[in-house]
Amino acid sequence: MTQTGRSADGPATSRTAVRDGLVASLALVPSVFVYGTVFGGLAVQAGLRSLEVLGMSLLVFAGAAQFVAVPMIAAGVSPLAIVLTTYIVNMRHYLMAATLAPAFSGFPRAWLALIAHGINDESFAVAVARRNPPDPWFFIGSVLAVGGSFFVGVVVGTGLGGLVSDPARWGLDFAFPAVFLALVGAQLHSRADWLVALTSGVLAVAIALVLPGNWHIIIAGVAVSAVAALVLDPERA
Amino acid sequence: MRGQVWATIVGMAVVTYLTRAPLLMILARRPLAPRLRLWLRMIPLAVLPALALPLVLVVRNADGTPVGFGLGHPPLWGAIVVVVLASLRVNFLATVVAAVATVAVLRALG
Description:
The complex is a heterodimer. Chain A is an all-alpha fold. Chain A has twelve helices and no strands. In chain A, helix 2 runs parallel beside helix 9 (136-161). The longest helix of chain A is centred in the middle third of the chain and has 26 residues, at 136-161. Chain B is mainly alpha-helical. In chain B, strands 1-2 form a two-stranded antiparallel ribbon. In chain B, a hairpin with a 5-residue loop joins strand 1 (58-60) and strand 2. In chain B, helix 3 (74-87) runs antiparallel to helix 4 (92-109). Chain B is extended. Chain B starts with a helix and ends with a helix.
């Protein structure tokens, strides 16, 4: 394996790679910042306290799952259901962790325990697009840029969120479904993607009409994605 | 009540860490099986519409019981705006703002 012993690179090499990762992620900084701002603002609007919003952003650090959790918390959904939904939404991290792992052989385990928390869609995409297997230090640099801009965005958003009264008048109650649909829309590439998204949405509506609570999310999401994985050509993955 | 919010946040943090750390820390040597990779990729694609579409389509009473469909009501038009703009790769903020504005304008007119 050519990538083993990467951490044995000189400090100058790793410093350069961290800087390269930071610089390569600068293009993402505005959109990640805005994403964090929208999250912070909406979470405060939904009734979370600033400290809770900041704590969630530091401890969970997974934007999509946080957007999913906030309206559920606001609606008084049971913690168990929220935690389970979070797990399902974040299961895609397994894919990223497995792809990143070979690049990090030779790193101390304590470092890996910390670096793991920084795994995110944007840094993964940037690091893998540049080199596969990715450069670990480059990935770390990207995590610093993405994590930093997300967190600063959340701080700004929590400050702004308290300024709007009567959110429904401005359509802000629709912002959460709008964010979910925007996240899906950006991932729709093939006809199969559209089919999976539509089938799951329609099935969830049907289940929601007969089953109380929020189980339609997990049932439809897991069932439709599993059937899709069994039926579709795995070479697409 | 607030203790429950923090318990939820800590629970979310723990399960999220469990999706990140294990495979990185055992330094997985081989890629995941193709069908497993495909499933993991499909999950967000299925979960997010499962979350959003009932919010958009199902009209509920004050106590949360579903009373029917909201076909043609403002959120449905907002949803159409989002999906069209996002699939055209329009910027995230612009997409969300356009959708929220659509709902606000239709409500003001309605």
